[in-house]
Each structure stands twice: as structure tokens, then as C-alpha cells.
Amino acid sequence: MLRSTISSLVPRATSVARHMSNAAKLTTVEINDVTGIATLTMNRPPVNGLNLELLTDLNNSIQEIEDNKSRGLILTSSNPTIFSAGLDILEMYKPDKERLKAFWTTLQDVWLALYGSAVPTAAAINGHSPAGGCLLATSCEYRVMLPKFTIGLNETKLGIVAPKWFMSSFLSVLPRRVAERALNQGRMFTTDEALRNGLIDEVANSKEEALAKCAEFIGSFSKVNPLARSLTKQQLRAAELSELENERAQDLEKFIFFVNQPAVQKGLGIYLENLKKKSKN
Length: 281
Ligand SMILES: CCCCCCCCCC/C=C\CC(=O)SCCNC(=O)CCNC(=O)[C@H](O)C(C)(C)COP(=O)(O)OP(=O)(O)OC[C@H]1O[C@@H](n2cnc3c(N)ncnc32)[C@H](O)[C@@H]1OP(=O)(O)O
Hints:
Order of helices and strands: EEEHEHEEHEEHHEHEHHHH
Mean pLDDT: 92
Catalytic activity: (3Z)-octenoyl-CoA = (2E)-octenoyl-CoA; (3Z)-decenoyl-CoA = (2E)-decenoyl-CoA; (2E)-tetradecenoyl-CoA = (3Z)-tetradecenoyl-CoA; (3Z)-dodecenoyl-CoA = (2E)-dodecenoyl-CoA
CATH class: Alpha Beta
Bound molecules: ligand LQQ7U7AH
Number of helices: 10
Number of domains: 1
Organism: Drosophila busckii
Oligomer: single chain
Subcellular location: Mitochondrion matrix
Strand content: 5-15%
CATH topology: 2-enoyl-CoA Hydratase, Chain A, domain 1
Radius of gyration: 18 Å
Strand order of the largest sheet: 1-2-3-4-5-7-10
CATH architecture: Alpha-Beta Complex
Helix content: 40-55%
Shape: globular
Protein name: Enoyl-CoA delta isomerase 1, mitochondrial
Number of strands: 10
Distance between the termini: 43 Å
GO molecular function, one term: delta(3)-delta(2)-enoyl-CoA isomerase activity
Largest sheet: 7 strands, mixed
């Protein structure tokens, strides 16, 4: 059934050993022969932490799906319990200056590409989805999640601040007062809470079911003119997209300034240490 499997073994050199998770590509794209829908899978063990390489591969895969004229894009993870752990905190902790710039710029690219994608998009959230993971999921038009996982923008819990465009994605899904409270609290929603509040659209009992429900959502546009649909979506999302496009340089500057604050570095260090302690117990 797969028209093509664009998986990859592209060797990649990097000078920073701690970021070298794999020499192979960290995403795969599979296009269903019958439906024409592309499934984009993140595959960066152990937790799909969004580092520069995974973001670069995500960006290239989204581009490839747009260029292939796929009928839709479903974003998911190869990990059975984690959709994405969000940004790889190691990218922000004691960062290399040039790499930090490339990291944030590529994250901006991914958001612009996914939130502004011309094709219908859906997320099959088959595991936990904090922070950057939630950003990816809420950038899609539809979300199906498996039971007993969590999703949300927990940045305030880490002592960091979600940028405006993270909030835009969140606000495109949640009512303002729910979004505002959740952002201030750094709230992580369980699957049930996410469904009740509208942060996700459906619950599925397996990844296969989630993928099928996402495909069904994308199929709901089969009788709609694709150009009219994509121009409608892009008009609805234009204000948020232009806001970041027009302020990319300032957004990058703010991020670099903020991350380099000693108090932020200290907070990230403690958070990482706690994560490591927890994983050893
Ligand atoms: C005024 C405007 C200014 C603008 C300034 C901008 C500021 C920056 C904004 C940044 C925005 C977004 C931030 C993020 O996305 S930060 C990331 C947030 N993510 C989290 O908090 C999730 C943390 N992880 C977990 O909760 C759990 O790991 C999990 C995902 C639920 C999975 O649990 P698990 O039990 O299955 O796995 P676990 O044992 O915890 O982890 C395995 C190893 O992976 C490491 N790890 C986990 N998450 C991360 C991560 N996000 N980054 C780096 N490393 C991570 C963990 O430490 C374990 O490592 P090891 O095996 O011990 O070496």
C-alpha cells in the first residue's frame, strides 16, 4: 500500500557529540497508495526530543509532503509512549552560540511550515506530548490521542516562557480563558481532560485507530476543492503566520537573550538533573 517510503540514511556530521543521536535521518515519510495521505513519523530515541537535527528533518519532510502533492499529512511518533518530549533541553542548556541560533531558526521554520501547511494536517498523538510536542500537535488541524498520556504547554514549570507563536497555536484550539489559565499554570492535560477541553478532537485506543481517525478527518475534504480549502485555511491563519514572519529576527534575539540569563540556565540545569534522577529510579 505504500507508494513510497522515504526513509533515510543520510550521513550527517556535527561537531557537538552530545547532539549526535544518530547518523541516519530522524523522520520517515510514508505515502498511502490508496488515500494519497502522507504519514510523517518522528524517530529520535529515547523521547523524540526536538534537537536541531530532528527539526531539520521535520522541516524537510513537511516540504517534501507539500511538493509531492500528498492529500494530507499525519504527524506521529515511532515511540510507543512518547509523541515528543518537546524541545531537547540540551540545546538550550550551556548552549553553543551558533548552534542555538540555527536551532531556534529551524524551530521557527517548522512551525511556519506546519501551521501554514497547504495540505490538511492531523496529529496521531500516540504518547506524551509536553511543550514543543504540544506545539507540533496544536499546529495541526486535528488531533487524535491515545488514553492515559499527557499534553500541554508546561513552560512556566521549567521557568521559561512560551513565545507568542506557541500561544497562537494553543489559542487556535482552546478557548482563551482555558488557554490563559493553562499557560500560566504550565498545565499538562490528561487525555480525558484534553478531550473535555477541546485540546484534542478524539481519543483512539491504538495507534492504528488514531491513524485511521486522522485519515478519516483528512478524507472529509475529499469533496472540497483543494485550492479553495488551502486558501481558506491560510487566510484564517495568516495573521499569526505573518506576525512571526515579520518578527523572526527579534524573536530569535529575545530567545537568545532569555536562554542565556543565569537564572534560566540555573533552572534548566535543575530541571535536567531532576529528569535524569527520575529516569534512574
Ligand atoms: C518574552 C519571550 C521570551 C521567549 C523566550 C523563549 C524561551 C524558550 C521557550 C522554549 C519553549 C519550549 C520549551 C520546551 O519544549 S522545553 C521541553 C519541555 N519538555 C518537558 O518538560 C518534558 C520532560 N520530559 C518528561 O516529562 C519525560 O521525559 C517524558 C517525556 C514524559 C517521558 O518520560 P519517560 O519516563 O518515558 O522517560 P524519561 O526517563 O523521563 O526520559 C528518558 C531520557 O530522556 C531525557 N529527556 C526527557 N525529556 C527531555 C527533554 N525535553 N530534553 C532533553 N532530554 C530529555 C531524560 O532526561 C532521560 O535521559 P537519561 O536517560 O537519564 O539520559
